[in-house]
# Entry
Amino acid sequence: MKPFSLLDLPALLRRAGLGAVSCIALLLAACGGGGGSSPAPAPPAAPSNVVSVSIRQLPANTSTLTANTPYVSVTVCAPGGACQTIPDVLVDTGSAGLRLFASALNSTLSSALPAIASGSGQLAACAQFASGYAWGSMRLATIQLGGETTTSAVPIQVMNDAALPAAPAACAAQGGSNFASSFGGIANGILGVSNFKYDCGSACTTRASTGFYYTCSSTACSATTATLGQQGINPVAAFATDNNGSILALPAVPLPNGAPSATGTLTFGLNTQSNNSLGAAQIYPLDTSGNLTLTLNGVTQSGFVDSGSNGYYLNLSGVPTCLSGFYCPSSPLNLAASLQLANFGFGPAQTVVIGNAQAMFATQNAALPALGGTAAISGFVDLGLPFFYGRSIATGLQGSNPSAPNGYLAYQ
Amino acid sequence: MTSFLRLPARAAVACLILAALGANAHAGLGRPLADAAKDGTLLTQAPRLAAQAAAGNATAAAAVQAQTVQTPQGTTVTEYANAVGTVFAITWKGPFKPDLQQLLGSYFAPYVQAANAQPQQLNLSLVKGSDIVVHSGGRMRGFFGVAWVPSLLPPGFDPATLQP
# Structure
């Protein structure tokens, strides 16, 4: 048992004598329910390269509490013109490509999204994540995020597409959970806006043995290669403008126990508009795996910054854990993290606060800025979603900056 | 999520399917280290013991052998065997996930069962099943992890120190 972007705490709820009714009450409070005074003035229209990001408990999800799961709305259109806006798609700075659950698509759209031919069948993907796999068809769709639109219909994945055979053995053999069941109530999809342009990249153009792409008849699937043009593509890279990266910015929330919800922004383009200037932000190049070198309290380790991880996952000696590997110190700990620059020096130290997970979960807050747990392997630091609170963190696409060929992170 | 994750009937069906799939010849956990070549192309033989001796109990580490292979997925896997040559732990690192069904062998089904019974996030997974522990991390283009069988660990050996 452990860490989850998607934190599920039914046992705690039961222990506390709380249940779905309490969750609903909490959500209403979070939304300012019970108001009724004069309406607030209309906010100014958002610039076209910005979409809102919300972190909150989903009203439809009454059985599970989540923590630090950032959602956006995504509009997808079929070449024929049918469009649908899909809410509550998880923003993942650790993967490339848009993946939507088939169950989130209406019948008009799902029948109108063209399949992608592969061999004598259609192309399917077994998208790989550390926690499991997402099986589904690759289909063409035009993607709209705020005022940005892909210049053409691009490959997206329709996860758990009933038109396909079940996930082949080679897909399930990667282990972990099948997202078709494990993520159904948590998000309607995954918006991958990493530093990479394609989900798999060049390896899948020449090797079927990666286990990523498959060609499917109506009854069976076999591993295959996929050209770059067939692969899942980071939607940012397919925009006409503002296509060199994105900035995920979240507000600071109270330390250590957070807030019921938080609302931030995902802004497209870097140094292309007045609202996406990097200014004096430092550039932190990423390696071919999307990782970088960093120091944590002066100790050099490998790591990444990732909106798809719901906490800080790093090894601390002598700090008590509880609830299957979350840290539960008696008072919050301040750590210092510095990421490595292009010149191999280290950037300014950033404060990372680790609070008491049990106290945080007891609040039922969705925005938990001090949530931490043990690392997957020693020596690797996962600076997850909490690292974004109070920061605007840019992800630069591969190929957009000569000093960082694999892409980069940047923040003030 | 919880409601359908924890349906016992569904889990049981999944386990049956996985057990059937697991009939292929495999090496990996619980099997002789000499079978590691079935998991990929042999890269190095037993050179990692110094690091383990430094990290864990020196006496225990002295009896540990290791073999590194490159799997068909392009992932580097190191298998660690105890004094009688049985693989008790594996690590992996590479651009794609390895075939954990092959590498975990008979421990794959309890791993998947445990993974399905717990909440998930995308890019990190720490699973403790029946006599199997699997820590999986990383993101597209860069995955890593470690898995071990608690009952097969050499006395005093700390698997949390294993580095892919």
